[in-house]
UniProtKB/TrEMBL annotation:
Top EC class for this record: transferase
Species this chain originates from: Nyssa sinensis
One GO CC term, this protein: chloroplast thylakoid
UniProt xrefs under NCBIfam families: argB (TIGR00761)
Taxonomic path: Eukaryota, Viridiplantae, Streptophyta, Embryophyta, Tracheophyta
Entry's EC annotation: 2.7.2.8
Cross-referenced Pfam families: AA_kinase
Domain Aspartate/glutamate/uridylate kinase: 94-332
Name of the protein described by the UniProt record: acetylglutamate kinase
Keyword set, alphabetical order: Amino-acid biosynthesis, Arginine biosynthesis, ATP-binding, Kinase, Nucleotide-binding, Transferase
Single GO biological process annotation from the record: L-arginine biosynthetic process
Domain of life: Eukaryota
InterPro entries in the record: AceGlu_kinase-like_sf, AcgluKinase_fam, ArgB, Asp/Glu/Uridylate_kinase, Glu/AcGlu_kinase, NAGK-C
Biological pathway: Amino-acid biosynthesis; L-arginine biosynthesis; N(2)-acetyl-L-ornithine from L-glutamate: step 2/4
Amino acid sequence: MLAAKTLPISNRSFPEKTLEKSNPNLNSNFQFSLSTRKPKTHNFPFPTACLKTSVSVPPQDSQATVPESSPITPQTRVNIYSESLPFIQKFRGKTIVVKYGGAAMKSESLQSSVIADLVLLSCVGLRIVFVHGGGPEINHWLGRLGLKPNFLNGLRVTDSSTMEIVTMVLVGKVNKHLVSLINKAGATAIGLSGIDARLLTARPSPNSAELGFVGDIANVDPAILRPLIENNHIPVIASVAADEKGQSYNINADTAAGELAAALGAEKLILLTDVPGILEDKDDTGSLVKEIDIKGVKKMMDEGKIAGGMIPKVNCCVRSIAQGVRTASIIDGRLPHSLLLEILTDEGAGTMITGSSSKPGFSIKAILNVASAVAARPKPVA
């Protein structure tokens, strides 16, 4: 199933370029143990062979480039597949919700690696649900039509004309493009929006007077998704929803992914972002917090270490865990094959948030209190 004929990751030919800025959070020796996310010494370099492109961070002001991959022997390839077995067994048959956006959406090379990752994970039995926004594409089409994007506290001001363009771009263009790429790569994708089959029912946001048709999620009905994922199809969902009267709303894609993960009882929620993850020191990318529980999140919030654009992402993760999602990860989407790094290695590609805590008194109520505290904090201005 994992033969090179199906997904020839290691045989790709890349431009002979290297990236100058290395990621201080990753090294070349990733290991395979379900008991810890820390790297150990290992004989078979899974990421350095198959995922060699995952150890560098592309410059944010340019499209990602990846170094040339060295050929590997058939025996090494077999060893690599064997070493990934514990991870495949852990997640096989489980639902993984992935929110796609940021640099991974803007760079063609990163987009290709995300699509390849999705297809590989689907081939080995993971049930993938793919949720996307498309802010840069929306801004591009607003500009072409002579309209200026407006934001308030990090949220797009969406009047009726803008909402029409948002729907056309997300549902008609971005969604179908992603479906086409996944189908071309060998999986079977189905394009949907929150409007289809009342998948997401929207309600106006509390600031609707200032924001216009920006909505929150009032209800999730995942019935349309269950037969799709049970048959190994990949739903690709645009973050647009309608209220009970049929009015369309622009929904934050992180929020949509989190609520869908909760409704589906997903094993894992993954948010692809443009940052390494949660940092102990926001000015030091080497201070990545690899794994943290809810009480740790609350402590970092109280200390002001979780701030700015990380707040709504953490809120999304906390709410999903409160509703039954096992773990939620905020990962660096600038890393090629970041999804495989997160799921098939101990090292991961960002920060994993869990609901577990070794301290007494921990409860779901405590998680919801944290989510409320995060949600109440001011959002950043874009």
